Amino acid sequence: MDAVNMGLGVVIFLVALALVFDFMNGFHDSANAIATVVSTRVMKPHTAVMMAAACNVAAVFVFQLHVAATVGKGTIEPAIIDHYVVFGALVGAIAWNILTWYYGIPSSSSHALIGGLIGAALIKAGPSALIAGGVLKTVAFILVSPLLGMVLGSLMMVAVSWLFRSSTPRRVDKWSRRLQLVSASAYALGHGGNDAQKTIGIIWMLLIAAGMSGDDPSSPPVWVIAACYGAIGLGTAFGGWRIIKLMGQKITHLRPVGGFCAQTGGAATLFMATALGIPVSTTHTITGAIVGVGATRKLSAVRWGIAGTIVWAWVLTIPCSALIAALFWYLGRFVL
Predict the structure, then answer these.
(1) 310 and 303 in contact (C-beta within 8 Å)?
(2) What is the pTM of this model?
(3) 244: phi then psi, degrees, rounded to nearest 5
(4) Which among 269, 271, 313, 25 has a CA at the least distance from the CA of 145?
(5) Burial of 249: CB neighbours in 10 Å, binned 0-12, 13-18, 19+
(6) What b/e sequence results for 136-158 when a residue is b if at least 16 CB atoms lie within 10 Å of its CB, and e otherwise?
(7) Spatial contact of 117 and 76, defined as CB atoms under 8 Å apart
(8) How many Å apart are CA 311 and CA 296, to the nearest integer?
(9) pLDDT above 90 covers what percent of the chain?
(10) What is the pLDDT of residues 116-143, one digit of tens each?
(11) Is 184 left (phi over 0), alpha (psi -120 to 50) or beta?
């Protein structure tokens, strides 16, 4: 693709804006990794967020950059990418994240970013700017990731109940508390691995468009990788406390064994999606897993009204962030 003429100052500003989004992603989504371990009182809140932040950063050594390649080159046509598209996409995602965080709604930062890209690309070049395979894969996993999390969480709950059928409740609680430390760490690892790569993809496409990086899909600049993993870890360390209570306590009442099963099912979903290069929502995944665990005990254990409100937020995320992105793509042409 031909390099777009953009000043160094604009590139620096947009890289900084992308890292702000990455920080907010960690801040907004920290509840996904630690809500269950905090609500079951296995870990103190500040200890839990520091553990999750460390695992977010450690994910750089575990996962290959398949998700970054999907976001950077598999969602919208590289030829239409310029600083206005990137600006619109980032502002659309950040604005939606702020709005949902303020109201304590666990929406998807991932789909806010994808929606931002779609909105900016559509207003610039129309439907032909979208890569159908990448967009459809991401949209499909709005349903697949929570359903898979729900199924795996339920199966884990059934399996654990069968394995410990002859054990006393006290022994089950003791082992669940220990295992929940492992499952929470695994979920935070999957969160960092999938979500940090989305921002890597955004910065990478910007640098390629500006002619400041090669377009080899396997090798974004090392400083981009380090900055994105560091930013999401820092955001997680600050913690989105408004959302933690909703995720950990209001959907269903969780005990340590339920928290372990939900996090293990969710972590397995994230590991699989990241390996396949699919940008999924950690919010959708853990919500589905929590619902699955609650429903395994009895359907009335799940507060379906709250779950329904969360689902509406999921449905609205991509179109709302796309609309905001389209507006700021237009405004960006006058300010950048």
Answers:
(1) no
(2) 0.85
(3) -60, -45
(4) 269
(5) middle
(6) ebbeebbebbbbbbbebbbbbbe
(7) yes
(8) 20
(9) 23
(10) 999 999 999 999 999 888 888 888 887 7
(11) alpha
